[in-house]
Amino acid sequence: MEIAFENKTGRFYTESLKKTKTVQEYLETVVPDTNEDIAHISTVRTEVYIKSKDVTSRGVTVTGEISAALLYITESEDKLQTVSLKKQFIMEAEADGAELSESAVAALKVSNTETRILNPRKVAMTVEITGEITAYRKADELTVSAQTAENGPVLHALKREVSTEKITVVTDKTFTVTDQFAIMPGKAIPSRIVSCIADFICEDGQQVGNKVLMKGKARIELCYLADDTPYPIWLSHTVPFSQLADVGDNAADSFIFSAETVSAYADILDSINGGKTVEAEIHAVIQLVGYKAQTVSFVSDMYSNLAPVHCKTEKLAFRTGAKQSSITATCAGELDIGEECCDVISISAAITHFEKLGTALRATIQTEAVYSLADKTLATARRVLTAEAVCEENAVLSSASVLSSTLRPEGELISGEVTVCFVTQTVSEASADIVVSAQYDDEAPYDYHSFPEATVVRAERETLWELAERYHSSMEKITAFNDCADINGKLIMIPKSI
Asked: Do 280 and 196 contact (CB within 8 A), yes or no?
């Protein structure tokens, strides 16, 4: 006899595709006619921007752009000049038969760069970009599975409830961050912007009514020229941002979101006090995934004391929690240059690798300094620093970025300090066996009357369910005849039950 089950489902998002893709791009350019020849490269700064995402039945296509700014020392060794490179690229994640909808999240990062001087007027770069691409689709997911209340054989069912996190929100929102900031006293007055690079650090998201409030920081790095300075100058600026995204009736308890830069611009303005200010404008897209707590009820086992019951089970996988965290770490070190440093002209700190090992977070940082000597010539020094922090065991490290960096001359040493922000995402998962169908074998019934009316046993690490099934009883009957607060090691009476 087939035992009928009634299943109730809810409509939620589910991951239909999750891939890590890598592309390599080759860029080259010649220095402007107004620039001098290249002696050697001192600093390379790169950023990757998302331009578009396209989801089709074939997969997800992401179009992006590499933006790079190279600082180099001229052949005369008394000047520092810059050259910029840009190139668009395409990254594809094939569906491989998976069913896709219109929702996808992409996180791009520069994983490796190699720079070569082809000749004194020409430079080339090979850039490796890594993308984490996840596509979502709406699907019916189980919320309740139970035996129907129809008349039939007496059955005992082990019912379970688990608390899960269902994906209820997947959305994008484009936004713009604009800010004006003055050049700090002591800094050279800018005459022309050479490059503007921006990235984001996401901190907190919470639902307010039918909207989600997201907060974080935009970090802007400018390279500019000044009339009274013979070299380009780097300037870092951080501005907080907050955005509201409309999610309608799709309630959520926790959110994981990222802000990806689409483009970044900067301009120099005259201030009212006669100085100069910089106006920066960053276009970006927020990618938001929201999770809602949901209780799932199901039957994990069944038996009858009158006849065999054959259960068919399937593994039910579910999320038990989701959160996003930002963790900062600071590291310090010294560059031994072996000669007297007069002034630090330019500093750079770039993360070349980051990883998670157990609960340890680690970022490898390449620091570079361009400094001047007593004879006014320029030189460079490099050192690798390591920033470390601690996170939860089941957290996934999604990104690492430099928050701030400082280098200062101290005789024949250049002391430095770098602060890094790690962003981790934690999505806890578990699984359980669920009965999806059952057969009651009424053609081979048990001889119920031959079972003993009661059995006395000493419980040894068995559950009430296991004892009830083994001795032809029920958990309700055992509980009625015994103190079941802690049965382990105790003698208990087990009466038989239909």
From this structure: yes
Residue 466 DSSP SS3 = helix
Side chain identity at residue 338, one-letter code: G
Looking at the DSSP bridge assignments, the partners of residue 222 are 196, 235
Q: How far is CA 56 from CA 91, 95, 116, 203, 287, in A?
A: 14, 9, 38, 31, 18
> For 188-212, what is each residue's pLDDT tens digit?
888 888 888 888 988 888 888 888 9
Select from 371, 369, 368 the least CA-distant residue to 340: 371
Give yes or no for a contact between 135 and 106, defined as CB atoms under 8 angstroms apart: no
Distance between CA atoms of 343 and 333, rounded to whole angstroms?
Answer: 18
From CA 363, how far away is CA 346, in angstroms rounded?
A: 22
pLDDT at 151: 64
List of E strands, 304-395: 309-336, 343-357, 360-372, 378-390
pTM confidence score: 0.79
Helix extents (H) in 353-487? 464-470, 475-481
